[in-house]
Specification:
This protein has 400 residues and is of the alpha/beta class. Helices cover 41% and strands 15% of the residues. α5 packs parallel to α7. The longest helix has 18 residues. The structure holds iron/sulfur cluster. The site of iron/sulfur cluster has 12 residues, from loops.
Amino acid sequence: MKTASIERKVSDGHRVDAAEALALYQHAPLYVIGRLADEIRRRKHPEPTVTYIIDRNVNYTNVCVARCNFCAFYREVGSPEGYVLGFDEIFRKIDETIEVGGVQLLLQGGHNPDLPLAWYEDLFRAIKERYPAFRLHALSPPEIIHLSRLSRLGPEEVVDRLIAAGLDSIPGGGAEILVDRVRRLLHCYDKATADEWLGVMRHAHVRGLRTTATMMYGTVETPEERIEHMMRLRDLQDETGGFTAFITWSFQPKHTELGGTEATGTEYLRTLALARIVLDNFDNLQASWVTQGGKVGQLSLAFGANDMGSVMIEENVVRAAGAAYCMDEIEIVRNVEDAGFVPKRRNMHYEVLGDPIFREREIPRMMSLATARADGAGGEAPELQQYPARSRPGRERRGH
Ligand code: SF4
């Protein structure tokens, strides 16, 4: 199939529809789709900079009742390997993050029935009291839906209460593919339908929060469904303008119930480039080097990405599924500069904060990613005694 007329349309700055996107995705040579994406990136970001953020991906609990079949991270309620981090453990992680120049926590976790909304509010307030300038990029839409069910409040009210407690922005996790057929097959329909996920983001945007959007591909979805996912994000972005960035990565199959094989690096680049073409109202696309490795991460900068994501200090979820590349700030900067760009540190709003911090002051090198807890170290902090547990094992453990 010839795609020349669609290529011209993209080059002229026009929007593609779903059928045109599919034709490009399936028939345009990789270098062509990459060149189109690169043209768009250059139009949106004529300056030669590539940004990144220093933050820490903290998973406050691995206990989860959702049981998505693509997830190797969660533990069942009552599992001896289930954990909930204590406030002091989280404070320590923030101290370490600040030491290497970090500005925010990406805080996400399992759907733990024994953590009521009050625990989150207390945690957020405690963090803001100790670290007023530190940002909380926390709780993906399915976690908000889970808290809404647990607290019997609407998702909007949960978002409002979390904002009042200190929530700064919402990560786009849990989107997987925003098509309910796919969500049913992945056992993640119950945690949040496509409409529910989008509904939380819509409300957050209306309330002035910025959020990101993600896509995990390479499970059971068709190419058409990947494009439907992008179209739904594009529609919401037209409506609210609240998304700061889009991040896509391939399903990591190891140790998951679903299993299978991982998508290739070229499929990643093709998907990233297509996203840059379809999501014409998104300013920023991140390179997912944590799942793809530094070299594909570097190539991503020629396939539509303008941001290297996070200098991750800690990672638990991808690592549980068998993959987690590690790069500290020095490595990220080397990859960016070798690709011909100027690296700049940013915040969640993509405002440039400065040059690489390691060139301003000495910071400890991170040769491996930290984990939430040592492998298999379950248990919860003593302060959880004061919060009501919903599950029977939780009630027994807390003596309620
Ligand atoms: S992906 Fe998230 S919601 Fe799904 S099982 Fe894993 S921790 Fe739970």
